[in-house]
Amino acid sequence: MVPLQSPVAALTAPVAQTPSNKIRIARIALAVPRLNTTTTAVGGGGHLLPPANSSNDARPPRTEPALTTATLDHLDLLEQQSVFIFREAFRHFDRMCMLWSIGKDSTVLLWLARKAFFGHIPFPLVHIDTSYKLPEMIEYRDRLAREYKLTMIYGQDEVSIKDGNTYPATAHLAADDPRKVTRKQCCALLKSGALKATLQGTGVRRRLNLTNGKYDIDMDREPWHGVIVGARSDEEGSRSKERYFSPRDKNNAWDVGDQPPELWNQFKTDFAPGTHVRIHPLLDWTELNIWEYIKRENIPTVSLYYDQGDGTRYRSLGCGPCQTPIDSKAKNVDDIIAELKSGKLKNIAERSGRAQDQEGRGGLEDLRRDGYM
């Protein structure tokens, strides 16, 4: 069990060392540097050099408040906790990747990962492409991947898509037609199945070539054991049962009743070799926290989240045929924050526009037990 340090306690903790081919695990600072902040020089070993006009004279007495949790705002505390989880995960898993759905939560996760590792993410980002995402979502994914120089990989169930074994391709069939594919069955194939095959290395992985902007077949077929996910406990019932470090079995299946306890500031990071573990740095964030952080950090998001003039917007993004917009006149981040604070949406589930969640008795939890994000 590793203690989840408070941001203040982390300041005095020793700097953990990693092998030379990995990034040093840094202390959590009072304010994790903004990504648009530049420093003038870096010395050997990655230590910041003092300003050119500095001297060895004793520093004058501090005039700012002492560093305590009372001097940090809530977003700072959430940010630093997430950064700490990223760095702990990187220490413990040799083969790690991060899922990026292109939605607001996983894009905040992407931003935090860049902060945790000083602008460079030392592991691949993985997107499961169902072929039914709206075009601007895919354009946004590839634009940010090029801009941030990400190791961007996507996986896909190419066979089911080619054979028309999907909900959109069979939606016209009668309910009792054996060829008909329900929304949940479609998710099980195009999302859960494709995700498992991609993570285990049994499916085709395609990697973005940053030079020509095209995707090439990735020769790396080794499985990833640590998988970072942007799940939040307040988003949906089954996700509230998650842990920061949540083990799965060899088939990526989730046994909800067999999760390690995480009491107070303790969580388990040591698992048997080869154990597949989902890691959730955003577990304690709320929908409002996400949008407040997007505003503070000026994080780019997909325009589908905003009213384009017809009085609707998407609150949660998924596949085009299975997502429905909500009535909203929120045209920007400030409007969304005000809308959430007004209480207008307090009795409406965040994923209420995702049709597959409403299908069958188990809803999303059935899919998640079988390996879904």
Can you describe what's shown?
It is a single chain. This protein is of the alpha/beta class and 373 residues long. The protein has a domain at 287-356. The chain has ten helices and twelve strands. The strands form three sheets. An eight-stranded mixed sheet has the order 6-5-4-3-2-7-10-8. A two-stranded antiparallel sheet has the order 1-9. Strand 2, helix 3 and strand 3 (125-128) form a beta-alpha-beta unit. Helix 8 runs antiparallel to helix 9 (333-342). The protein is globular and about 60 Å long. The protein starts with a strand and ends with a helix. Residues 4-33 and 36-57 have low confidence and may be disordered.
Descriptive terms for the model:
373 residues; alpha/beta; 8-stranded mixed beta sheet; two-stranded antiparallel ribbon; 10 helices; 29% helix
